Amino acid sequence: DIQMTQSPSSLSASVGDRVTITCRASQRMTNYLNWYQQKPGKAPKLLIYAASNLQSGVPSRFSGSGSGTDFTLTISSLQPEDFAIYYCQQSDSIPSTFGQGTKLEIK
Amino acid sequence: QVQLVQSGPEVKKTWASVKVSCKASGYTFTNYGVSWVRQAPGQGLEWMGWINAYNGHTNYPLKLQGRVTMTADTSTSTAYLELRSLRSDDTAVYYCARDSRSPLAGYFDYWGQGTLVTVTS
């Protein structure tokens, strides 16, 4: 199985900050790496698919990049509604696996 | 608009079985797959498997093989997850999500609202 490790596990930031979350795969993979946002009591929401493609309706302040084993999610200017937990997910091989999550909190 | 509506919460005894439904609307059900993902209380996300809604082909992770069955009823555009021999660590919110018709290279662009399954002794 491909293990996905996110860093940091938690992060405190302020509105307007630029934030980067990293997802590292345990082995080299294709770009089938997706990012989700989850708020308390809600289902996850797709933000980025295939490493760098912005899902329809998602604000352009979210972006994704990376290849091989290292992928990043960047939020260019944090908004109050962005405080949530973020997960990466690989669909390169079966079983699909998620990172452990990054909790983004208000400083 | 695309919607996935799941069945209601369940409380089951250890060793029992549970079957959760996920009714799709707003898109052609057989053009996609459905993945199931669960989340134990306060924990992260775990992929439970995938079904191709067109031909019923499935793919499950090794740790759940033998206990899980996913089916799809094309006449009602409904996907089902059955989990048997329930244990306390199966207590979780179970989500269905729209996926591609392949078990690889997909992403989950629409999600159900989640179904809480509680396993008690």
Distance between the termini of chain B: 41 Å
Shape of chain A: globular
Radius of gyration of chain B: 13 Å
Quaternary organisation of the protein chains: heterodimer
- The biggest beta sheet of chain A, please? 7 strands, mixed
Task: Report the helical percentage of chain A.
Answer: under 10%
Low-confidence stretches of chain A: none
SS summary, helix count of chain B:
0
Which segments of chain B are poorly predicted (pLDDT under 50) over 5 or more consecutive residues? none
Mean of the pLDDT scores of chain B? 97
Report Rg of chain A.
Answer: 13 Å
**Most extensive chain interface and residues per partner:** A-B, 25 and 23 residues
Structural class determined from secondary elements of chain A: mainly beta
Task: Determine the N-to-C terminus distance of chain A.
Answer: 36 Å
List keywords for this structure.
heterodimer; A: 107 residues; mainly beta; 7-stranded mixed sheet; B: 121 residues; 6-stranded mixed sheet; 10 strands; globular
What does it look like?
- The complex is a heterodimer of chains A (107) and B (121).
- Chain A is an all-beta fold and 107 residues long.
- In chain A, 0% of the residues lie in helices and 55% in strands.
- In chain A, the strands form two sheets. In chain A, strands 2, 4, 5, 6, 8, 9 and 10 form a seven-stranded mixed sheet that branches. A three-stranded antiparallel sheet of chain A has the order 1-3-7, with no helix packed on it.
- By secondary structure, chain B is mainly β.
- Chain B contains no helices and ten strands.
Give a summary of the structure in a few sentences:
The complex is a heterodimer of chains A (107) and B (121). Chain A has 107 residues and is mainly beta.
SSE inventory with pairings:
The complex is a heterodimer of chains A (107) and B (121).
Chain A: E1 4-7, E2 10-13, E3 19-29, E4 33-38, E5 45-49, E6 53-54, E7 62-75, E8 85-90, E9 97-98, E10 102-106
Parallel strand pairs in A: 2-10
Antiparallel strand pairs in A: 1-3, 3-7, 4-5, 4-8, 5-6, 8-9, 8-10
Chain B: E1 3-6, E2 10-13, E3 18-25, E4 33-39, E5 46-52, E6 58-59, E7 68-73, E8 78-83, E9 92-99, E10 115-120
Parallel strand pairs in B: 2-10
Antiparallel strand pairs in B: 1-3, 3-8, 4-5, 4-9, 5-6, 7-8, 9-10
